[in-house]
Specification:
Elements: H1 3-13, E1 23-26, E2 30-34, E3 39-46, E4 50-51, E5 54-55, E6 58-64, E7 82-87, E8 90-95, E9 102-112, E10 115-128, E11 130-135, E12 141-147, E13 158-162, E14 165-166, E15 174-177, E16 185-190, E17 201-202, E18 210-213, E19 217-221, E20 226-233, E21 238-245, E22 266-267, E23 275-280, E24 289-297, E25 308-313, E26 320-323, E27 329-330, E28 335-340, E29 352-357, E30 366-370, E31 373-376, E32 385-393, E33 396-399, E34 403-405, E35 407-408, E36 414-419, E37 423-425, E38 430-436, E39 443-448, E40 451-456, E41 460-463, E42 472-480, E43 483-486, E44 490-495, H2 508-541, H3 546-554, E45 562-564, H4 584-590, E46 599-601
Parallel strand pairs: 2-10, 19-25, 27-35, 37-44, 45-46
Antiparallel strand pairs: 1-3, 3-8, 4-5, 6-9, 7-8, 9-10, 11-12, 12-15, 13-14, 13-16, 16-17, 18-20, 20-23, 21-24, 22-23, 24-25, 26-28, 28-31, 29-30, 29-32, 32-33, 32-34, 36-38, 38-41, 39-40, 39-42, 42-43, 42-44
């Protein structure tokens, strides 16, 4: 390999660069579990953080015992027995009352083009039974708590029981019995898994008094029927036998079947010798309890061994909708909605989930899809609406409360408009309006010549009477908590206003031309009058009579006056004045009866 090639490989695989691979690791490869105990499997996983600039996120996680993988919570064989939870890139599977040996694999799905990843080879869980091994050395009996399948399994602490009652301070795997009775039985458990107790064993005799239950944990749907069964033996004649609940006075009440709570729902099928079954019909949630079988003898023997625990799930309880993301829901991000029922950690193959979306009042609600989850790979703002789910099976149907999904996004654009127009006259009222499309609504910041004017949640910036110094280049910025965007710039040009009485000047050039025309006309009239005056004197000295002079006076011309008005705030042409006479003689002649044009400033 050349140095150049080696450098490329180094850069591609340095930590912190986007070269993460798909994968996962289990905390343990194999687990030996006692039958009836609870097992927890843990897995950490990884995936590429980005693809083509897009952030990769996890959409779904689940556990499976099959390949191709199927969600374990939907497998009827694990009815009521599994629960999955995740924290970041670490997920766990809890299996309650484990009863079968299997391999468990973790699967996660993403918004990557590849989809997801199945972490292999998985974790093998071997289910084993506990039993008490009895040996008879020269002095007394030695009891040992052993596993039937896991030879290398060696827990650190044990629990020992005599007739179902825990023997204090006995924590080792081996227990020596010196004194014993023919009716006594012994059992053991691993500390921390006391719900999985070994079958009781007799010491010193081939038979003794004992009770063994077929199932330690039973999960049932409300409305169904349940059989709780046990087997029992006794070296003595049995006087009475009955079932009771550990959470009530039934412990000492042999008439358990006559309890009004159960009415006619209890049944004791025909029993064979050494076997008893309690059947509960149409089970209810308040039937959830631990049930034990008890028999009495002349010696007063009794057992308090753990019995069978019944859990009744109320499927008709109202479901609820949970979201994969509890924060702000941003456009373009993945989102998963899950239909859940409290205290209901399982799903039956007959469960029928359906998702709905609330539409406008005039149309029917939209049916989206069936399934426990509603997945948006890349949610859009148009997906903002109310959603709810329904669950239906043989027990009935129920709907969740609607959940409003509010899809937010940063400002998509920002636009600045000016009213009445970008070119305005001094003193006018001017409004600048900034508009945007954002959710939540944007706040606005105003700029003049790239300097901040103000931050204002309102989109309007106003001048009640604009001045020349207000002119400049303006733009606005639209911003919410998800981002910001600037508008294009607008140049505000503030101009002055002025006018003339004869004609309104549209600009400084037009006004100047008009003034020049007035001056030229004035000069021409002065020259004409001067010439006429000289001629008049010549005729007067030649003996013109008063009648001619009178006629001449009537023909004298009074020239019009031109008044020029300027705005106090516009350009003032103060340097323009009427033409003045060049000599006193001319002035005197002008005062003889001719009124010359004048220019006056308003």
């Amino acid at each position: 390999m050349s140095p150049k090639t080696g450098l490329v490989v180094l850069l591609l695989c340095m930590p912190g660069l986007l070269c993460a691979e798909w994968g996962g690791n289990y905390s343990k490869k194999e687990i030996c579990a006692i039958k009836g105990s609870t097992v927890k499997i843990q897995c950490s996983f990884k995936f590429p953080p980005r693809e083509n600039g897009r952030e990769i996120k996890v959409n779904e996680t689940f556990w499976s015992t099959k390949d191709p993988p199927e969600d374990l919570t939907l497998d009827p064989q694990y009815f009521g027995g599994v629960q999955s939870e995740c924290h970041g890139n670490n997920c766990s599977l809890t299996i309650a009352d484990v009863r079968r040996t299997d391999v468990y694999m973790f699967r996660f799905m993403t918004n990557h083009s590849k989809g997801g990843y199945l972490v292999k080879p998985g974790v093998k869980v071997t289910v084993t039974d506990l039993k008490v091994q009895v040996t008879n050395p020269s002095h007394g009996y030695v009891l040992k708590c052993v596993s039937t399948n896991c030879s290398t399994w060696s827990p650190s602490s044990y629990v020992w029981y005599k007739n179902g009652e825990e023997i204090p301070n006995k924590k080792s795997q081996v227990y020596r019995v010196v004194e014993y009775d023919y009716v006594d039985s012994y059992s053991c458990a691993v500390r921390g898994h006391e719900q999985a107790v070994s079958p009781p064993e007799c010491v010193g005799y081939s038979s003794c008094n004992k009770v063994v239950y077929h199932k330690r944990h039973i999960c049932a749907i409300q409305g169904s029927s349940v059989d709780i069964t046990c087997e029992y033996k006794s070296r003595e004649n049995i006087l009475t036998q009955f079932w009771f609940r550990t959470d009530s006075s039934h412990r000492r009440n042999p008439s358990f079947t006559e309890d009004p709570h159960y009415e006619v729902r209890l049944d004791l099928p025909s029993e064979t010798s050494g076997k008893s079954t309690l059947r509960i019909k149409n089970v209810r949630q308040n039937d959830s309890a631990e049930y034990r079988f008890k028999f009495t003898t002349y010696s007063g023997w009794s057992s308090i061994s753990p019995g069978s625990t019944l859990t009744v799930a109320d499927f008709l309880k109202r479901p609820s909708v949970s979201l994969s993301d509890t924060g702000d829901i941003l456009e373009g991000c993945p989102l998963t909605l899950t239909c859940d029922i409290d205290n209901y950690n399982y799903s039956s193959a007959t469960d029928d989930y359906c998702w709905y979306k609330k539409k406008n009042v005039s149309s029917d609600d939209e049916v989206l899809r069936k399934g426990r989850e509603l997945v948006f790979q890349s949610i859009k703002s148009s997906d903002s609406a109310e959603y709810w789910c329904t669950v239906e099976n043989q027990l009935g149907k129920n709907s969740s409360e609607p959940v409003f999904i509010d899809v937010q996004y940063p400002p998509r654009w920002s636009s600045l408009s000016v009213s009445p127009s970008p070119v305005i006259l001094e003193g006018q009222s001017v409004n600048l309006t900034c508009s945007s499309d954002a959710k939540p609504a944007a706040n606005y910041t105003w700029f003049k010549d790239n300097q901040t004017l103000t931050q204002n949640p309102q989109e309007l910036y106003s001048f009640t009477s604009i001045r020349p110094e207000d002119a400049g280049t303006f733009h606005c910025m639209s911003e919410n908590k998800h981002g910001h965007v600037n508008s294009s710039t607008v140049v505000i040009d503030v101009q002055c206003s002025w006018s003339v009485t004869v004609a309104t000047a549209g600009g400084s050039v037009a006004g100047l031309v008009l003034v020049l025309l007035v001056l030229v006309l004035t000069a021409f009239l002065v020259w004409s009058k001067k010439r006429a005056s000289k001629e008049s004197r010549a005729k007067s000295s030649a003996g013109a009579d008063c009648g001619e002079a009178s006629t001449r006076e009537q023909k004298e011309v009074v020239y019009s006056q031109v008044h020029f008005t300027t705005s106090s705030q516009g350009p003032v042409y103060g340097n323009i004045t009427p033409s003045m006479p060049r000599s006193r003689h001319v002035v005197e002649e002008m005062e003889d009866g001719v009124e010359y044009a004048t220019v006056q400033r308003a």
